[in-house]
């Protein structure tokens, strides 16, 4: 009678990185690789049970084993798995104003308008007050180099949430436009009325006490928010971009929180506080205070002109 004792062990471990090495070096090949098909009927009941135990344990391991976590992903608190992706929004005032409606923002008094430039005669066309400034810019090598330095500095500095800033990390591909809009509304709630049963009001209420990372995780599973994004993404003037297509344009949001200028970038660990302060009387002039920050990004772009700016501003009377 054939002895399978040296061929199979009584169990197969269900964890560990050396699964294949263990199975093929410790256990040997599967039984039917050692026993010709015409002789399988000769196995005793004990040997068949032993063989089925091997298969059962092996399949159990295959189904229960978790994917390995890379060092970078572990540091970010994320599994090494594909990032969910939304359809990218177009940096177009008409599109974003419709998006506000989809989210349930009653924006009878505020709307997104285009900022054409920083010359005073051009800024004069932007109605006041400005609740938020959105910047859409190309992600260049120089920009990434500068941002990595900021990220490293921020990683060693505890975030300052003493000003009650609502901040949301980005963990969804192509969602930077939506996150910039969320930041612009969430940090100006006193100016807006939100429909209680619409996506944004429910999302903000659910996540108000969460960390930025927890909010990001919650957004992954907020199907109504994803639907609001993807529905409006198909209504832009330019070609509709597929969710799996690589886009190297990025949205960030600038807001005034207690007369301090903050840049909210979902890729950054924390809100970025800028020292630039231009005031009109006692109030921070948000529109003009962003000028130096944005011009530095333009300089980093090395001649790339794919920049656009939007202001969330009170409608002109």
From TrEMBL:
Enzyme nomenclature, EC number: 3.4.19.12
One of the protein's GO biological processes: ubiquitin-dependent protein catabolic process
Catalytic activity: Thiol-dependent hydrolysis of ester, thioester, amide, peptide and isopeptide bonds formed by the C-terminal Gly of ubiquitin (a 76-residue protein attached to proteins as an intracellular targeting signal)
Marked site positions, Important for enzyme activity: 265
Residue numbers marked as site, Transition state stabilizer: 170
Annotated UCH catalytic domain residues: 85-314
Record PROSITE patterns: UCH_1, UCH_DOMAIN
Keywords annotated in UniProt: Hydrolase, Protease, Thiol protease, Ubl conjugation pathway
Domain of life: Eukaryota
GO CC term (a single one): cytoplasm
Pfam families: Peptidase_C12
Transmembrane segments: none
Active site: 176, 250
Entry GO MF terms: cysteine-type deubiquitinase activity
InterPro entries, per database record: Papain-like_cys_pep_sf (IPR038765), Peptidase_C12_UCH (IPR001578), Peptidase_C12_UCH_sf (IPR036959), UCH_AS (IPR057254)
Similarity comment: Belongs to the peptidase C12 family.
Role summary: Ubiquitin-protein hydrolase is involved both in the processing of ubiquitin precursors and of ubiquitinated proteins. This enzyme is a thiol protease that recognizes and hydrolyzes a peptide bond at the C-terminal glycine of ubiquitin.
Record's protein name: Ubiquitin carboxyl-terminal hydrolase
Organism: Rotaria socialis
């Amino acid at each position: 009678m054939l002895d399978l004792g040296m061929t199979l062990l009584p169990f197969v471990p269900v964890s560990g990185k050396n699964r294949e090495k263990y199975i093929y070096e410790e256990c040997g090949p599967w039984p039917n690789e050692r026993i010709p098909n015409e002789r399988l009927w000769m196995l005793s009941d004990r040997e068949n049970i032993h063989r089925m135990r091997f298969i059962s344990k092996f399949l159990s391991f295959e189904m229960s084993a978790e994917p390995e976590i890379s060092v970078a992903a572990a540091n970010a608190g994320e599994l090494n798995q594909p990032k969910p992706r939304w359809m990218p929004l177009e940096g177009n005032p008409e599109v974003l104003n419709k998006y506000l409606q989809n989210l349930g923002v009653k924006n009878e008094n505020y709307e997104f308008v285009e900022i054409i430039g920083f010359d005073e005669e051009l800024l004069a066309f932007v109605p006041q007050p400005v609740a938020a400034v959105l910047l859409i810019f190309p992600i260049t090598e120089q920009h990434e180099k500068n941002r990595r330095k900021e990220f490293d500095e921020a990683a060693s500095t505890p975030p300052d949430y003493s000003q009650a800033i609502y901040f949301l990390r980005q963990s969804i591909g192509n969602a930077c436009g939506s996150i910039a809009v969320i930041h612009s509304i969430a940090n100006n709630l006193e100016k807006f009325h939100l429909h209680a049963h619409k996506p944004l009001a429910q999302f903000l209420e659910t996540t108000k006490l969460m960390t930025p990372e927890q909010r990001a995780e919650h957004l992954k599973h907020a199907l109504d928010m994803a639907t609001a994004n993807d529905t409006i993404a198909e209504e832009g003037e330019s070609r509709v971009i597929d969710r799996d297509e690589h886009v190297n344009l990025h949205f960030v949001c600038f807001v005034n929180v207690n007369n301090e200028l903050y840049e909210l970038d979902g890729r950054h660990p924390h809100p970025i506080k800028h020292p630039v302060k231009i005031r009109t009387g006692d109030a921070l002039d948000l529109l003009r205070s962003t000028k130096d920050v944005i011009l530095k990004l333009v300089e980093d772009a090395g001649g790339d002109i794919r920049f656009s700016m939007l202001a969330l501003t009170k409608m002109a009377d």
